[in-house]
Every structure is written in structure tokens, then in C-alpha cells.
Amino acid sequence: MAELNEKDFPPLxxxxxxxxxxxxxxxxxFSQAIGKSIGTFFGSKIAMGRDTRDTGQMIFxxxxxxxxxxxxxxxxxxxxxxxxxxxxxxxxxxPGVIITASHNPPQFNGIKCIASDGTELERESERKIELIYYxxxxxxxxxxxxxxxxxxNNAPGMYVAGVMSKVDRDNIRSRNFKVVVDTGNGAAxxxxxxxxxxxxxxxxxxNANPDGKFTSRxxxxxxxxxxxxxxxxxxxxxxxxxxxxxxxxxxVFVDEKGNFIDGDVTLSLIVKNHVKKGEKVVTPVSxxxxxxxxxxxxxxxxxRTRVGAxxxxxxxxxxxxxxxxxxxxxxxxxxHQYCRDGAMTLSLFLDLMASTGMxxxxxxxTVPEFHMAxxxxxxxxxxxxLEKDILKQLGDVALDRTDGLKIMLVNGWVLLRPSGTEPIIxxxxxxRDEKTAKEIANDYKExxxxxxRH
Length: 454
Ligand code: MG
Description:
The mean pLDDT is 95. The protein is of the alpha/beta class. Strand 10 and strand 11 form a beta hairpin. Helix 1 crosses helix 4, helix 5 crosses helix 7 and helix 9 crosses helix 12. The chain has three domains: 6-153, Alpha-D-Glucose-1,6-Bisphosphate, subunit A, domain 3 (Alpha-D-Glucose-1,6-Bisphosphate, Chain A, domain 3), CATH 3.40.120; 158-366, Alpha-D-Glucose-1,6-Bisphosphate, Chain A, domain 3; 371-453, Alpha-D-phosphohexomutase, C-terminal domain (TATA-Binding Protein, 2-Layer Sandwich). It has 15 helices and 20 strands. The strands form four sheets. It has a six-stranded mixed beta sheet, with helices on both faces. Residues 102-103, 245, 247, 249-250 line the site of magnesium ion.
């Protein structure tokens, strides 16, 4: 039979690894074959961990047996936040595999590969793994070469110490902050409360019981899912509220009065506090102009990329950038590691509170005010056709083509980009006032709806 080449198979890895429903599309047999392919590709010792999902053990064991059969040894890190596993890979210069579906609902799970520098594996390498899988070109070694699995219980402690070493620990400790943390039944149930205690905080935990069905709240840390944390913060007894997504690569904050803080504002504040003249910051085209204003005022360079955390990470490495991040609470701090890290984001926020002596509600007011409105609309035509139609309607306007179409307007901007996973167009409108932002997003939604019909 002729060997399949890269054009003949659909990609398995999406923007965040292979995602699926266990025993449906993510079966034991499939996971094991992927494990064999991963082991064959890496050919060396692999670190592996998972989030709290009930299906995690089954997928973990299936991938694990595939890896061992290809002759690779394995370090079993157990349940840990995604960034803690990435940190372990970076420190030990070892590739890794994470069984997680991040913030997705509990019926999903996923397989994600990590390069030996701790960053998400590049697409070209994922394609090589896919090619091994489709061609069944796995390495199956003799019985005496089959890999062995070891445990390493030092990973959580090493991670917490690594995060703390990047901030002014003594200054944070001297403040004795009172912090409420909602780990949402996810993977940071132990590491984040431990980190906070080590930083001298008085800690109240919410949903810090690992629960693979996420029965307490939806795993996505959006304001509508954080009503419990917000109501506890409204009691006015605590300095900061923080919540993670399921695999804790993200952290979002609630101020001391119970107001949710947008991810863009968090990133702007951290950039404002840490970036010095001449340093670089990386963010997608979808982030707020507040960040542009702050970087300009600080004499820092802001680099805009396509949307997606791995793209931001790779650009940061290339540009030797200090900070990067997105509006969903994923902050990347270069001196620590080039991936989103919820615990690092939390430590940087506490560092900011300690160094300025300001409360979160006061800090928010120091960020230039911008509002973003988001919409989505069904796409009935190919994006390339729709894009041409939109451009015809627009006439002569200033455009940014980094990702989709970003149109510069007199009172703000609008970004139209096709979703990578669904047949929809995502619309982001930003302006200095909320009403205009909503109007912008709505106008373009209506424009696309009309163009869909013609
Ligand atoms: Mg996540």
C-alpha cells in the first residue's frame, strides 16, 4: 500500500491538542495509538500529567502504555496544573504530554504535547506525530527495551518555588493579604492555596475539592460562572479574589468590592508595573488599545500577533519579549516560562498590589478606559468570498490583516475573524465608551448578515 502523505489525512491536533469525548471519539485504542506515535516521535524520557477530569486516568493509562511500548521511559506527575507540567519539562529539558481539555465541559478530554523547552509543541512536530499515527509507523521494541514509569512528587513544590522566585516575595509577605481563591474543582486545588500561604496570605478556598465533573461551577472563568466568588468578595472582607480555569493556565481577578476585572485590564496593569523602556510586549490583534497606550507611555514596544496563546508564546521567544498575553486571563511572563500560567499571573498581581500599596479597585482606575463588545454571526459563505464582499462595502479604510480583518475606525476599531473550529465569524468592537463599542459590533454583525444573504 502506498504510504500516506501529509495531504491525505486530516489534522488531529487542534490549537490546544487533540480534543474529544472519551469512549466516543477519544477511545482507549485511539489514545494508545497516539501514545505509540508520541513515543516514536520523541524517542526519549517523557513527563506526563493530567487535570482532575474523571476520564483522565483512562486516557492517561492508554497514552502511557503506548509510550512505554515504543521504548520511552515516563515520569508520572499525577494531577497538576498545565503550567506546572510545562515548568517541569522546561527545568528538566524533557518533552511532555498533558491529558486535559482546559476549560471545556466535563464530558471532554484531550491530549496535548509539550516540547523539551516547556512550550506547546510546534505544529510541524504535531504533523509528524500525525503522520506516524496514520502510517502506523510506530516503534515497537523488544520486551527488554519496554519503557518504565517513575513518579516524581517534587513537581508541585518545585513549581511553587519557581513562581515565587520571580516576584518580591518578602514585600508581598509583609502585606498579609486576604485572598479568596476559586480553583473550580480543577488542577490547581493544591498548588495555588500553597503558593498563597507561602506568600504570607490568609487564604479562603472555594471549590478546592478536585472534582472531575466540575459540579461546583462551569470551568470557564467568566463573570457569569463566578457568582459565588463575586458574592464572597462583596462581603468586603478580602483584598483580592482569584479564579482559575480547569487546568489553571489562566487566572482572572475580582476586586475587593466584588467587581470582575477584565483580562485586558489585568494584562495592562501587569505590563504597566513590570515593563521598562525598550522592552517588548506581545499580544494578539484582538486585545485592547489600553495596552498600546501603556506601552507607548512606558517607551516599550508592543507586537501584535494572530489570536492564540501558542502564537503569542512563539513570538515572545523570537522577540525576547518580557510579557505577553490575551484578554481571557492568560498572562505569559518571559522570565518564568513561555506559556500561560495562572499561578504566575496571580503572583504578579499580588506583587503589583504590594509594590503600589493600592487596592485592586484603585489600580483598575489607572488603566486607560476602553470597552470591548463581542458578537458572533453564522458564516454562510467561504471566508475568502465574504472577506472580498466586506472589503467592497468598506471602500478606502485603514486595515490590519494580521488575523482576519481589523478595521480602524475614527472612534475605535472592529475585528472580524473566522473561527477555526465553527462556521462563524467572531466580531470584536472596541471604543472608549461602552455604547459605541456595542454599536460598532452590532453594525458589523448586521453587515455580515446582509452579505450572507446576497
Ligand atoms: Mg486552560
